[in-house]
Amino acid sequence: MPYFSFSLKEKSANLLYIHDDLKKISINKTYYSKNTELWKLLNKKKFTQYINQLSFEKINKSQQNGKKILFLIPPNIGFGDALEYSEAINIVKEKCSFDYVCLGFLGKYSDIINQYFSFDKVFSIIISEKELDFFDIIFHTSYEVKSFKFQKYNRSNIKENILKYFKISDTQKKLQKIKNKKIKRISVFPISKSPIRIMPVKLINDIIEIFSKKYKIEILFESNSILSKTTELMISQNKYVKIVPKNPKELMKYLKDIEFGIFMDSGPLHGAKFFKKRGIFLETSVSSKILLKDYCLIKTITNHFISSYCSSPCGLVNVFNYNNALGCFETLKVHQKEIKNIRNAKNIERNIDKKKYNLFVKNNVGCIKNLNIKKIINLIKKEILL
């Protein structure tokens, strides 16, 4: 995860495709970022001619005193994590005596965070030196909150961790019982950023075949996702409506309007929680106790898969490279403890070949294979008739 500063002596059109905010850069001024794509671009030889300065920045423990705080979020997070971080920091804003609370770097999620929350400012991918100097406290969440250190291999509750750090009790009111409306549409969310958190294609086909006679079935796919493309090609049923949001704003608009959802561990699950929606969650590698704590409108199909190397939910959020192979604890035949003991665990997260993700769609990992399709169908029938 790079945290770096840079200064340009000349602008380049190559910057603009990353984010519109880069159009606002002034030459000979210093900026800070955590954007991995920008870091890689600035390090290319052909870009040297445009650069005054480019360097890694040391992350220091934040000062505890001050009224103006900037929370710096890890780069390359998903839609769901962006919502989770924002909800937690919004509570910090309400409960603590800060005068000014800002977020960076939310990238493509900046617009929806601005729309649904009331932070003083949300920085997309860069912040100027002048803007940075305005803050009393620079809070790097993944550095300050120690429980985030092993988050990719043992997922924990983002909101709970942040509130615990600031000694805030989560006094969120429990949901009142909502009068259920008659369900006419079922929204299916089979895709995530990881092949160990996707919906088995057989289940998708069964849902369409069984429920399309009485209900409108909508299936949400993602553009530019090999998991999404492979899954769609393997669906044999055709009585469904394909939904492909162009951006996070369109996704939030769609989620606000759903009636009943069938979710994997992915961004739409968190969006559905945000809008107080009903549905069913299919647990694989991450526990519903973490993802749906105190949320009662989405029911869980729990997963009790056990192998010689892991038991579900194991906490892993994505596949990783180990001994020249890509997989999870089960498929790579490695225990979680062994991964924790690797001196530089970051190395096994790098250079993941996403083109190989389609192999996991065609041959699901153990915890996905373990999902009881009959039990899922029966729970859907029960819930949509309530």
Strand count, sense and barrel status of the largest sheet are: 6 strands, parallel
What is the count of DSSP helices, taking H or I runs of 4+ residues? 16
CATH topology of the largest domain: Rossmann fold
Distance between the termini: 46 Å
Q: Please tell me the CATH architecture of the largest domain by its name.
A: 3-Layer(aba) Sandwich
Low-confidence stretches: none
Any idea of the CATH class of the largest domain? Alpha Beta
How many structural units, i.e. domains? Answer: 3
The shape is globular
Radius of gyration: 22 Å
Number of strands: 16
Q: Roughly how much helix do the residues carry, as a percent range? A: 25-40%
Mean pLDDT: 91
CATH homologous superfamily identity of the largest domain: Glycogen Phosphorylase B
For the largest sheet, list the strands in their spatial order: 11-10-9-12-13-14
The class by helix and strand makeup works out as alpha/beta
Beta-strand proportion: 15-25%
Would you spell out the secondary-structure blueprint of this structure?
Layout: E1 4-8, E2 30-33, H1 36-42, E3 51-56, E4 68-72, H2 79-95, E5 100-104, H3 110-116, E6 121-123, E7 127-128, H4 129-133, E8 137-140, H5 141-144, H6 158-165, E9 185-189, H7 201-211, E10 216-220, H8 226-234, E11 241-243, H9 248-257, E12 261-263, H10 267-274, E13 279-282, H11 288-291, E14 298-301, E15 320-322, E16 325-327, H12 329-332, H13 336-340, H14 357-362, H15 366-369, H16 373-384
Parallel strand pairs: 4-5, 4-8, 5-6, 9-10, 9-12, 10-11, 12-13, 13-14
Antiparallel strand pairs: 1-2, 1-3, 2-7, 15-16
Helix pairs in contact: 2-6, 2-10
